[in-house]
Specification:
The complex is a heterodimer of chains A (233) and B (96). Chain A is mainly alpha-helical. Chain A has one domain. Chain A is 67% helix and 4% strand. In chain A, strands 1-2 form a two-stranded antiparallel sheet. The termini of chain A are far apart. Chain B is 90% helix and 0% strand. The mean pLDDT of chain B is 90. Classes of the chains: A mainly alpha (233), B mainly alpha (96).
Chain lengths: 233, 96
Amino acid sequence: MRLSPDQLIFWQHGFLKLNATIVFTWGVMLVLAVGAKLITRNLTTEHQRSRWQDLLEIIVTAITTQIGEVGLKNPRKYLSFLGTIFLFVAASALCTVIPGYEPPTASLSTTAALALCVFVAVPLFGIGELGIGGYLKSYVEPTFIMLPFNIISEVSRTLALAVRLFGNMMSGAMIIAILLTITPFIFPIVMTLLGLLTGMVQAYIFSILAAVYIAAATHKPKPAAKSEVVPTA
Amino acid sequence: MDNMTLIAVASIATAGFATSIGCIAPALGEGRAVATALTALAQQPDASATITRTLFVGLAMIESTAIYCFVVSMILIFANPFWNHMIAGAAAAAAK
């Protein structure tokens, strides 16, 4: 029984392997990029506009609002990174309705790559916002003893992101595969619906957690407030 | 019991216990989280967007511990390195 799309190899030449994960990843990327290009060809602010433009506006506005609610001051700056992560994970979960397709996020390679992107992006955004000194100072934030724990928590957060997404996607695909051998036709369809739901929830969770980590890294610690004597008028 | 049987029995039993015991605590935790979120929603319905979003993020974090146990079970059943090692050894011994 196949544990992940990594093991379905289409073409191999010595060291290079073209497996199903790579094919489906590039397929999803192609669909997203070509679809976006086609829809944004004639952007207009008139009242008469294509419904696809409205759909894209809804998606972009919703993501921007969510990023703002997490606590990031300038959502547009982080929109491209977080929005792309959300759209990629959501699209790779939604395309499960196409027969013969396996979500590339059901392979630990893809989810580890996405988690590594977040691992690199958090210090980048933090340094961009606070400067190198300010960002490194945030590691010794409450006291100096917390330094190893903060570093460990950085690494374990990344690992948790990767394994969470991988576990959810892989379990969905595996449950459907197992059920197809037991009770074909009706029950696997119900489980596919459940898999779609968990896929969308996990896409949301992944991007919201990335936003929360970036917000924690770019958060300016307030200077200690001196108590003010309120003048009684 | 020779080595191969021992490894097989240990892998199968551990896989079963990992998922069954490992999913008890996350399920209890998620139940408490949802119950508290519902209480908070009943007390302040206008904060429902924040409460719902925080609830989902919290549920995902609790769920991930259950996912860790599930991944360990899957590895023991489908990608067991000890079993692969024994199979490779047995195949080499049979080929000799």
